[in-house]
Amino acid sequence: MTIPYDFPPFPGFRPEALDFLRALKQHNRREWFKPRKAIYEDEVRWPMQCLVADVGRELARLGLPLRGDPEQGLFRIYRDTRFSKDKRPYKTHIGAVLSRTGSRRDLGVVYIHVEPGASFLGAGFWKPEATFLRRWRQKLVQESEAFLDIVRQLQAHGLLLETDTALKRMPRGFEEAARSPVAEYLCWNSFLVSQDVPDEAVLRPEFAQTVLRFAEIVLPLLEFGWDAADT
């Protein structure tokens, strides 16, 4: 996949981007959005594409195994309402990923979320499939000290490894690891790191460097999971 480089350096989101997303939250209807779609494209989507391309260029320059693709890495603004009771048609944020191929469908990503009052950077593995979880857990048992060192390094940067769901007992096949130093992590179903970002930070060009630095810090966690997936 060739990374599109025809985007200028990230200029920072303008205040109009956050204003638009705030208004969309109040007027989440097609008849409101459609005549204002050009505002979304210019003020929200285009700066995010610039950000992903800008960070992607720096990742490539540093030789890091993450890519930023301004087309494949962005999530759509449209919500999938087919099986949801919530029929609001639009997301009130914009999200994008950095991943091994640049695609948002990759396993193990850096996630960029811009939303008024709730922007953040995230990374890790969210509810991966059972085959990956088993390989991950096997690697945890085999390389427990290496994993715990990754956790300590994240903590040194003020980042906590967390999960959204966990098993109440040891997973099948790992009962003998109940006294292992990684026993708690063996019960986790997700492995996530996040960093809150204030509104004023996304308005500055330096936000690209914040994303790049976050990606560098969380990369060992991602590589640990990729190694498990590839074995």
Compact overview of the structure:
The protein has 231 residues and is of the alpha+beta class. It contains eight helices and four strands; from the N terminus they run αααβββαααβαα. 43% of the residues lie in helices and 11% in strands.
Keywords for this structure?
alpha+beta, four-stranded antiparallel beta sheet, 43% helix
Structure description:
Helix 1 packs across helix 3 and helix 5 (144-156) packs antiparallel against helix 8 (207-230). It is globular and about 60 Å long. A four-stranded antiparallel beta sheet has the order 1-2-3-4. The relative contact order is 0.16. The chain contains eight helices and four strands. A hairpin with a 4-residue loop joins strand 2 (109-114) and strand 3. The chain is α+β, with helices and mostly antiparallel strands. 43% of the residues lie in helices and 11% in strands.
List the helices and strands and how they pair.
Blueprint: H1 15-26, H2 30-33, H3 37-62, E1 94-98, E2 109-114, E3 119-125, H4 130-142, H5 144-156, H6 183-186, E4 191-197, H7 199-202, H8 207-230
Antiparallel strand pairs: 1-2, 2-3, 3-4
